[in-house]
Design goal:
This protein has 273 residues and is mostly helical. It has helices spanning 6-24, 27-34, 52-57, 64-95, 101-113, 116-129, 136-142, 144-160, 165-172, 177-205, 209-215, 222-231, 235-256. The chain folds into two domains: 1-50, no CATH class; 61-267, MetI-like (MetI-like fold). The protein is built from 13 helices and no strands. It starts with 5 loop residues before the first helix and ends in a 17-residue tail after the last helix.
């Protein structure tokens, strides 16, 4: 195949540059705030610069490190559970036809469509009855509501492009079900697990409403702590925490860029219909 025309390459460079600027520019004021000591309108830049906000953010009394650990642990638990449930669910939706499949797909997407506050209020009573409110595990479980649909959707796209005949061939050669999964199925679906897992982690990482209602303010994550400092008018500390908060999103965007470019089946939808 020949090279793309000059106008096409120019258009790609321009759109890529605009996309980068669109993503980076909102971070500039946030970064400036984190090093500012008083930034008053209409000044374009702060009158004084300081690292006090960062020093405070990484001190024990700020609670940032504890919230960072809690947020990471909850996101990891939610991601692992999403993978354990999303892989078999995605296989069923991606490979098989069955009655009511459309209704199941709609049900899976419902937590994304329905506002989070409505979902949280609806399930709050159940979590109270089970004794899961105000607990870290309860928050991790409620995060499955927004993370599981993404994981299932990604895996359904992977399995829609997967040929189960390879598994039959492996079993015909004497491989056990575990060996077949480990040596045949898992390598084929691993890109989807990685992409879906990263998305699940990011969605859990950014949850505020579900964490607040189920955690009851006792399970403090970075989004809750950030909101507290913003409400208190601590713009410098809010800027520092905000930079810490968005770092996983940037890293995940870079890690999944190749899969989101359209060359991977990892984002292929619910699969066969």
């Amino acid at each position: 195949m020949g090279r793309d025309p000059l106008w096409m390459r120019t258009f790609q460079v321009l759109t890529g540059t605009l996309l980068i600027l669109w993503l980076v520019l909102p971070l500039v004021p946030l970064a400036i705030w984190s090093f500012a000591r008083g930034w008053r309108f209409p000044s374009l830049l702060p009158n004084q610069w300081s690292t006090e906000a960062w020093t405070f953010a990484f001190s024990a009394r700020s609670g940032v490190l504890a919230a960072l650990w809690t947020t990471t642990l909850i996101a990891l638990i939610a991601t692992v559970l999403s993978i354990l449930v999303g892989v078999p669910a995605g296989r069923a939706l991606g490979l098989y036809k069955f009655r009511g499949k459309g209704a199941v797909e709609l049900l899976i997407l419902a937590p994304i469509i329905v506002p989070g506050i409505a979902v949280a209020l609806g399930i709050h009573g159940v979590f109270i009855a089970l004794g899961l409110t105000n607990t870290l595990m309860g928050v991790a479980l409620v995060h499955l509501i927004p993370t599981l649909p993404y994981m299932t959707l990604v895996m359904a796209g992977i399995f829609a492009n997967y040929d189960p005949a390879f598994e039959d061939q492996a079993r015909s050669l004497g491989a056990s079900p575990l060996q077949t999964f480990w040596h045949v199925t898992l390598p084929a679906i691993m890109p989807g697990i990685i992409v879906g897992g990263l998305f699940a982690f990011l969605v859990s990482w950014s949850q505020y409403v579900l964490t607040l209602l189920i955690g009851g303010g006792r399970v403090v994550t970075l989004p809750l702590l950030l909101f507290n400092f913003v409400s208190a008018g601590r713009n410098d500390v809010s800027g520092a925490i905000g930079m810490i908060y968005i770092l996983p999103g940037i890293l995940i965007l870079l890690l999944t860029a190749r899969h989101l470019s359209g060359r991977s089946g990892a984002v292929g939808g619910f699969g066969r219909v």
